[in-house]
Design goal:
Helix content: 25-40%
Shape: globular
Structural class: alpha/beta
Number of helices: 7
Order of helices and strands: HEEEEHHEHEEEEEEEHEHEHEE
Distance between the termini: 33 Å
Number of strands: 16
Length: 269
């Protein structure tokens, strides 16, 4: 098993090196809202890594030791299907977990991770955690409760998890990705599009907890108007019934290229 993990980690490193040579950005979907992005400079960015308990995540990505190097760890909000394995990955790689201020403050207070691994930033704030990489937190229309298992009482507790965020991620060549987190439609999506000009949106379509395909299509077509879109946050929960086919149909003739990935599939830009 250790040899297999080492081999998988080596392969991940070779992919990052190849992408650095190609000047492209690779986006790998791992189910729900979990993505691994490899930048043109070979930086590996992991977002909302709900992996080990995610029914959609392919088996090889559930082994955290086999993920290979992670340079940047980002979380949009405190719900378990987004925070997921982020604390474990922060410990494993000895890297910071960047997330909403309130969420990271709660994780610090509860002793989930040391404060040094829980830097805080919030909506409108921009960080430059790696050379050539810039991340800005945006609004998201959602909630953010933190459920923590108390090891003393052996019971789950619900704590304040800060406010949910979206994330604008700009890589070395200026390509911009808008990971929208969990959100409903809100009017300032238009402002986000005009100001940050994302090339690619990672957009929730499942419904019930987020936009459904029709809402997501409206946000894409009328407000955000990106070049590319990848639908996410559907299929892992029975209430997330929206499908990429419904999203694409609702888009009509909008001039956006949609990549309807299966978990474990990747696309390069």
């Amino acid at each position: 098993m250790k040899q297999l993990c080492a081999l998988l980690a080596l392969l991940a490193g070779l992919v990052a090196s190849a992408l650095a040579d190609s000047g492209k950005t690779e986006v790998l979907w791992l189910g729900q809202s979990a993505f691994r992005i490899t930048s043109p400079g070979g930086k590996v960015i992991l977002i909302d890594p709900w992996l080990t308990k995610n029914p959609l995540t392919p088996a090889q990505y559930k082994n955290l030791d086999a993920l290979g190097k992670i340079d940047l760890l980002l979380v949009t909000h405190a719900h378990g299907d987004h925070l997921g394995d982020a604390p474990a990955l922060a410990r494993l790689n000895n890297i910071p977990l960047y997330g909403p201020g309130g969420m990271n403050q709660a994780l610090t207070t509860l002793g989930v991770l040391p404060a040094a691994l829980l830097p805080r930033f919030d909506k409108g704030g921009t960080i430059k955690p790696l050379a050539g990489i810039k991340v800005t937190a945006t609004h998201a229309e959602h909630s953010s409760a933190l459920v923590w298992h108390n090891p003393v009482s052996d019971k789950d507790e619900t704590h304040y998890g800060g406010e949910p965020n979206g994330l604008i991620i700009e890589v070395e060549n200026g390509f911009r990705i808008f990971h929208m987190g969990d959100t409903g439609v809100f009017g300032d999506m238009k402002w986000i599009a005009e100001y940050y000009k994302p090339d690619l949106i990672l957009i929730p379509i499942g419904g019930n907890f987020t936009m459904d395909p029709q809402d997501a299509a409206y946000a894409t077509r009328e407000l955000l108007k990106p070049k590319f879109a990848i639908p996410m946050h559907y299929g892992a929960n029975p209430l997330g019934k929206g499908t990429p086919a419904e999203y694409i149909q609702a888009l009509g003739n909008a001039p956006v290229k949609v990549f309807a990935l299966s978990p474990g599939e990747r696309v390069a830009f």
